[in-house]
Amino acid sequence: MASDLLGIGTSGVMAQQRLLQTTSNNIVNVNSQGYVRERTLVYTNSVGLGTGDMVTQRVINNYAQGEMRRDTSAYHASGTRYDQLFQMDSLLGDTSNSVGTTITSYFKAFHTANESPAEIGGRKTTLSELNGMVNRYQTLSAQFDKQSDTINSTISDETDRVNSLLNSINDLNQAIIRTNGSPEENLMLFDQRDEAVRQLSEKMDIRTVTQPNGSMLVNMSTGHSLVLDGGVAQFKMVAGDPDSRDSTLQLTLGSNKAKVNDQDLGGGLGGLFSARRDLEPSKRELGQLAAAMADAMNQQNRLGMDLDNEIGGDLFTLEASKGLPYGSNTGSGAASVSFVPGKGREVTTFDYEVQFNSATGYEVFSIDGSGNRTSLMTGTTPPAKVGVAGHGIEIDLSGTPAAGDKILLQPTKHAAAGLKAAITRPEDIALASPLKADKNSQNIGSGEIKMTGVYNTGTGSGFGTNSLAPGAPQVVKIDNSGNYEVYAADGTTLIGVAPASSKGQNLMAALESPLGGPKVYADPKATPGYDFSITGKVEAKDSFNLSYNKNGFADNANGLTLAELQNKELVRKNNNAATSNDKMTFNDAYSALVTGVGNKTSQAKTLLQANEAKLTQSTGIYESVSGVNLEEEAANLIRFQQSYAASAQIVNTAKTIFDTLLSSVR
Questions:
Q1: DSSP assignment of 352-369, as one string?
Q2: What pTM was estimated for this model as a whole?
Q3: 8 Å CB contact between 311 and 435
């Protein structure tokens, strides 16, 4: 009997000791990262009395764990995307960085200069604001580049971390297989592996399968194998082709290589790629705004006269953008793209691609923000320059391309960075009209002449070098029938007659030769490049004169038009809409850019909050099973201590009985 009691008590002591060890281990690891609560199962002795086998195991719900991993990936994907967008949204929302603020200040300076157009002070302020606006465009473009470079650098770092985690999981798999006979060590290895898998789920969306031998297979959500029996895949960051900044990931497993679709990644890595995609359109919108604004200001300044009595020139310059050849090209073809003067309102945010189907045959495609390609034009034996109708760009082709070669063109991506001031002197701002109109002081009638507009001072116009050409319309005489006879500078060379029925409105458009015959000018805005009207009652023999506005520095007609450009809708709103009726102002265009980033940031924040709530829920469910509950463990500790003491008392009782038996036989 004593021996039976001793065996029972001893097995009880050992069992309670094992239970106390498990409980104590749970308590001390309550804050250990990745620790899974353990429990020891004690079975009755299959032969005789007392306790038998004891098994310590991890308490885990595989479904809850898998759900938590998926929610972890979603949370980090949305969190990483939000963090990157928030940085740019904050930058754009800061008035000290706002292009919109400088646009407003720039046009305000024009209004001030127009109050005293002959004075240099207002012009200096305008030039200063012009330079400040250029600097703001360049700075903001550089910030977009910096953000993109930061994202790419982070992608590279995260890729290295992913590879390290994959190797760790593979090593732990091998260790688990090798130590199959040591349960305690196995449990620690399982915890370490699960923690590595959890950290991996922060980086990307994964799926796992546990094998009968204890090893774990890890796959991407798309099914690509990452960790498998006897092998582990590795990611590599690859420079984009042809745009090196548009980097991608390549997955290598043994000798097999595959390009990874970044939209399938999930996790923090997927969030980084998503943020990079989100910011790309904004940079092109900034470039589109810079191109449209620079072109509008240049064209209008060319229609005025500066303080040197010269026809105005460009206020801004925009650098041509070099094309990016694809790595697979075999020919020496090259291309660059520039904006066509006077076509700024047609500029889109598209990228473009020139594809050569032979050494002389080419096709031009537009590429939208989603990568969709649309054929725009085809041709053979390409000329040096190819204009793309309706898009405001011109492509300069050179070299000898081979069939199949392709070149990517990104006209607006770097346009803001390439924007520069074309003038350094305030005198070069053309505030005055280049024309002045006067009536003859001897006129009998009350007619007044006024300029309708100046539209062209360059090729085909009636302007010479800082003057009106002698043969351009400059004199108007009223004949006996009330018709408007228009003469060249000599007053005797008749150019044409506008009928009295025109009532003196837009005489260049109404001009006929002979009277009742065809129009003299098919497009007066091109030739002679200006128009004017005579209002009021005219009498026979009345005459009016046009002349170059030499020394007319007090005039601000062109300055007023320059200032009014702020309120004109000159920026294309919809890439795919007709260019004539889908426009916005400069300030509206910048506001749309800021709003676009703001909306994406707001959406990312909402998604982050939803994913955070889901992760909190799934983590709570997982922790309720696998986490350490100190109250429960404290209760177990007391219970097992009492059981240990009771089992020890059994051993003590057995010893007493045994000693009594020995004494009785002496």
A1: EEEEESSSSEEEEEEE-T
A2: 0.89
A3: no
